[in-house]
C-alpha cells in the first residue's frame, strides 16, 4: 500500500501535465494561425505550428485605428476599475472584519444573498438607465465595483491581522483611517494583488455590460470589437486586397487581446499564491 502511495504524486503530476497540454492546444492553434498565411489557413494546414510564417496578420490588425481605440478604452476601464474596486473592497472588508461593528451580521447575510441570488438583468438595466449611466464608461465600472467573493477574501485576510498592532496604534493616537492606511494596507499587499488580478481580468474580459449599456461604437471595448470581428466578419474590411484571410485577422486580434493578461500574471504570481493562501485560512 505504501509503495502505491509513493507512486501517486508522479502519476498525479503526469495526468495534470497531460491535461494542461491538452488545454494549451486551442491557444497554440490560434497562435500558429495568427502567424500563418491566409492560404495555409484556408487549406487547413495549420495545427500548432505556423505554416508560411508571416507577420501580415498582425500588421493589418495594428494598422487598424478602431482596434487601437478599443484597446485604449479597455486599458482605461481595466486600470481605473481595478484601482477603485480595490479601494472600496479593502475599506468595506476592513470595516466588516471588526466584530464590534453594529449590524455586521445583517450586512454579511445581505452580501451572501447577492452570491446566491444575483441581480436580475432587467432591473439592473433599469437602474443603470435611471442613474443616467447608459452609453457611459461608468456603466462598465460601477455595477461591478465590489465583488462579494473578493470582499469575503479581504474580510478573512483582515481578521488574520494581529489585533495587537491596531490596538498599539490606537493607544499612540492614530485614527482608524490612519491605521487602515499606514498599517493594514501595507500588510495586505499579497491579498490585494490576488483580488486585484481577479478584478483586472474581469474588467479586461468584460463583455455583457458593454453590449447592454453602450450604444456609441467609439466607446466599444476590445472584447466587443473582437466579437464584431468573429461574429459579424468585420475583418474582411481589414484585408484591403492583401493575400490575407479573415480567419488569420481574427486569430491575430484574439492574441492581441489575450497577451496583456498573460504578461501580467507571471509578474504577480508570487503575491497571487501567497494572497490566496492567506485569504483562505484563518490563523
UniProtKB/TrEMBL annotation:
Residues 71-268 form the ABC transmembrane type-1 domain. Keywords: Cell membrane, Membrane, Transmembrane, Transmembrane helix, Transport. It is found in: Cell membrane. The keyword Ligase does not apply. PROSITE patterns: ABC_TM1. It is a multi-pass membrane protein. The chain crosses the membrane at residues 7-28, 73-94, 106-128, 140-158, 179-204, 248-268. Pfam families: BPD_transp_1. InterPro entries: MetI-like, MetI-like_sf. Belongs to the binding-protein-dependent transport system permease family. This is Carbohydrate ABC transporter permease. It comes from Paenibacillus baimaensis.
Amino acid at each position: 500500500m505504501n509503495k502505491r502511495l509513493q507512486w501517486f504524486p508522479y502519476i498525479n503530476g503526469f495526468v495534470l501535465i497531460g491535461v494542461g497540454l491538452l488545454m494549451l492546444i486551442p491557444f497554440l492553434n490560434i497562435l500558429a494561425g495568427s502567424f500563418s498565411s491566409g492560404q495555409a489557413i484556408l487549406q487547413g494546414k495549420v495545427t500548432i505550428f505556423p505554416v508560411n510564417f508571416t507577420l501580415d496578420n498582425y500588421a493589418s490588425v495594428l494598422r487598424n485605428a478602431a482596434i487601437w481605440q478599443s484597446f485604449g478604452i479597455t486599458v482605461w476601464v481595466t486600470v481605473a476599475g481595478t484601482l477603485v474596486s480595490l479601494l472600496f473592497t479593502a475599506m468595506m472588508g476592513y470595516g466588516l472584519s471588526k466584530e464590534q461593528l453594529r449590524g455586521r451580521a445583517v450586512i454579511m447575510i445581505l452580501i451572501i444573498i447577492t452570491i446566491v441570488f444575483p441581480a436580475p438583468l432587467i432591473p439592473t438595466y433599469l437602474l443603470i438607465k435611471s442613474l443616467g449611466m447608459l452609453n457611459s464608461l461608468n456603466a462598465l465600472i460601477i455595477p461591478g465595483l465590489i465583488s462579494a467573493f473578493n470582499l469575503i477574501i479581504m474580510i478573512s485576510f483582515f481578521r488574520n491581522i494581529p489585533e495587537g498592532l491596531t490596538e498599539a496604534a490606537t493607544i499612540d493616537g492614530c485614527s482608524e483611517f490612519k491605521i487602515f492606511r499606514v498599517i493594514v494596507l501595507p500588510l495586505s499587499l499579497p491579498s490585494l494583488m490576488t483580488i486585484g488580478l481577479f478584478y483586472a481580468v474581469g474588467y479586461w474580459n468584460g463583455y455583457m455590460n458593454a453590449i447592454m449599456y453602450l450604444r456609441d461604437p467609439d466607446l466599444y471595448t476590445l472584447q466587443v470589437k473582437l466579437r464584431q470581428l468573429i461574429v459579424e466578419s468585420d475583418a474582411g474590411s481589414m484585408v484591403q486586397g492583401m493575400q490575407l484571410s479573415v480567419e488569420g485577422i481574427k486569430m491575430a486580434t484574439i492574441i492581441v487581446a489575450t497577451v496583456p493578461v498573460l504578461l501580467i500574471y507571471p509578474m504577480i504570481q508570487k503575491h497571487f499564491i501567497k494572497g490566496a493562501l492567506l485569504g483562505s485560512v484563518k490563523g
